[in-house]
Design brief:
Number of strands: 9
Radius of gyration: 37 Å
CATH topology of the largest domain: Immunoglobulin-like
Helix content: 10-25%
Shape: rod-shaped
Structural class: alpha+beta
Number of domains: 2
Strand content: 25-35%
Oligomer: single chain
CATH architecture of the largest domain: Sandwich
Number of helices: 1
């Protein structure tokens, strides 16, 4: 009697192993098929960044006599130098405080222009001839400044001291603002 119980248990064990093996093979075969036939996607959105950095941020004209004109020019290494550090082309506006007390707020006594000297880039529609510096209301100085190559923009400044300007130090804050082109 014991022998038949052992045979019966051994038989059941063999059947259980076979069923388990077949089920495992079926699952592996089906899983492998699903894994090789499936596709996925990756999606990301890069945020637009319009950023400029002032590489050269000060111009010191020194002394000037009334009626005289001085120019800060890129070809002489003296200018405002801006670099596009964002990931889009940018338009750059310029505005300033008044420099002179005796000249009209916006006049030919205080002027700017974009310069291609010293690795500067002045894309089409940039201001490339002397223009009056806007006082308090920005105007576009450089248009579509590249962000990959040719990413430097230079701004030359020209001043003429009014003949009736009182003596003393004169200064103005020039503000450059970038926006996506």
């Amino acid at each position: 009697m014991e022998k038949s119980n052992t045979t019966w248990v051994a038989g059941l064990l063999v059947v259980a192993i076979l069923v388990s093996a077949m089920a495992t093979m079926t699952i592996v075969t089906k899983s492998t098929g699903f894994l090789t036939d499936q596709e996925g996607t990756t999606d990301a959105t890069v945020t637009e960044t319009a950023v400029i950095v002032m590489v050269q941020d000060a111009i010191d004209f020194g002394s000037i006599s009334v009626g005289d004109t001085l120019e800060a020019l890129a070809d002489k290494g003296v200018m405002f130098k801006l670099q596009n550090m964002g990931n889009v082309n940018v338009n750059i506006t310029v505005q300033s405080d008044a420099l002179w007390t005796k000249a009209p707020a916006t006049s030919n006594k205080y002027m700017f222009k974009c310069s291609t000297s010293d690795s500067g880039n002045c894309p089409t529609d940039s201001v490339i001839i002397w223009a009056n510096m806007p006082i308090g209301s920005p105007t576009t100085a450089i248009t579509d400044l590249d962000w990959v190559t040719d990413d430097i923009g230079n701004i030359d400044i020209k001043i003429t001291a009014p003949v009736d300007e009182p003596a003393g130090g004169k200064d103005a804050t020039v503000t450059f603002t970038a926006s996506a082109a």
